[in-house]
Amino acid sequence: MKALTYQGVKNVGVETVDDPEIHASxxxxxxxxxxxxxxADLLAYRGRIPGLKPGDVLGREFMGIVEETGxxxxxxxxxxxxxxxxxxxxxxxxxxxxxxxxxxxxxxAAQDTRADNTRVYTGAALFGSGDLYGGVAGGQAEYVRVPxxxxxxxxxxxxxxxxxxxxxxxSLPTAYQAVLNAGVEAGSSLAIFxxxxxxxxxxxxxxxxxxxxxxxxxxNDDRLQFAADAYDAVPIRFDSGAAPAAKIIGLTDRYGxxxxxxxxxxxxxxxxxxxxxxxxxxxxxxxxxxxxxxxxVRRGGIVSxxxxxxxxxxxxxxxxIVEKGIAIKAGRAHVQRYMSRLLHFIEEDRLHPEAIVTHxxxxxxxxxxxxxxxxxxxxCRKIVLTx
Length: 387
What we know:
- There is one protein chain.
- This protein is an alpha/beta fold and about 375 residues long.
- The protein has helices spanning about 40-45, 160-165, 170-180, 195-210, 220-230, 245-250, 270-280, 290-295, 320-325, 335-345, 365-375; strands spanning about 1-10, 10-15, 30-35, 60-70, 80-85, 85-90, 110-115, 120, 125, 145, 155, 190-195, 215-220, 235, 255-260, 295-305, 325-330, 360, 385.
- The chain contains 11 helices and 19 strands.
- Helix 4 (about 195-210) links the parallel strand 12 and strand 13.
- Helix 3 crosses helix 10.
- The longest helix has 13 residues, at about 335-345.
């Protein structure tokens, strides 16, 4: 079959790989009908995901038709149209029982080294994310093996097209969890740092929940304009003179926002010191967006981290966090917890995640698609690929 594989930093390509096969009784094989490039895929493209090796199939956001099922699959049958969560969870371990599916300790035997040199398991396996996250091939392919199918894929109604539901597997639940973690409600104020797909979908979810004052911070004018037009967000550039947090403080009568979401992560632009330390591999990236989120939040507020961080970060303002009594909530999305709820919102026309799609391309053009999205050419926000 044809699949998009990682071949090196900013080097991906479609090549012929072996067709997937059933390995365990609860596996299924899915024929992919739509897949998308998400933020984690871009991190992989940029060489920022540890454990990736040439030949690994990328893609965390995909859906399709069930072609084959293992003997132990009880929830699905061939012909079912499903969206697959990027988190691979067993559904019955001590974490899954608490609906902490991204923390599942049964699907990945990989370990990571923490700051104190202890080695711990990384949590649930993830599609298309390399050996550190289970080594499971991703969904930017014609076919995909989906493990633990009794605790993952959700059947989709035929009344909703692929683009309406595709993002239920990753971007939308990541955004929704970030908003829930922010603790906002009707009348709240919220700043979202990063106007990529997760940031934009977080804006949509925030408006659905009644957030009153919404600020969107990014360095891309096209995306900021879309956020202003689609979600009535106040657009603020990262690089327009005064720091974004200072502008937000000024726009909230020196109070600050009730909550902020960091949808940028460690791959954002940092100061010269962070750039140098990252180049020397002393740290893994920038915490500028996180620092600005902390500065923008009122006393007793919440900072919700949806962006990806790894390793150590320079200049995290612990003193300000403690002095202001800020709560920090973070973590990979527990996708399975939210998929059915979000599908209901889509069916009720309360959410329209397909609004962020700007480009539709065949899988054969996926190398060019990655380059376009990486460089933000042609006002690109989100690309859907079809095998």
